[in-house]
Write a structure and sequence with these properties.
The protein has helices at about 1-10, 55-65, 70-75; strands at about 15-25, 40-50. The protein is α+β, with helices and mostly antiparallel strands. A two-stranded antiparallel ribbon has the order 1-2. The termini are far apart. About 5% of the residues are buried.
Length: about 90
Amino acid sequence: MTVALYAQRKGWPLEGITIRLRHTQIHAVDCAECETQEGKLDRIEHDITLDGTLTAEQRTRLAQIAERCPVHRTLTSEINIRTRLM
């Protein structure tokens, strides 16, 4: 939604977006860019398909916007879950 709203505000010819997610668990030692080096990590890979006659620069900018959306920021931040039995 963030990407679509950004493209609409800019007047760019974005006709549709398809997002595909894959979730796996990997060993931390196999992840060169990860801070954690012990145990297993959740990895989410996402593929973004942008439909429309966008320039390479517009596509690059929309990919940057996708990484700044609220959902992406939540998933990449530290998460603290507290469970309460009611």
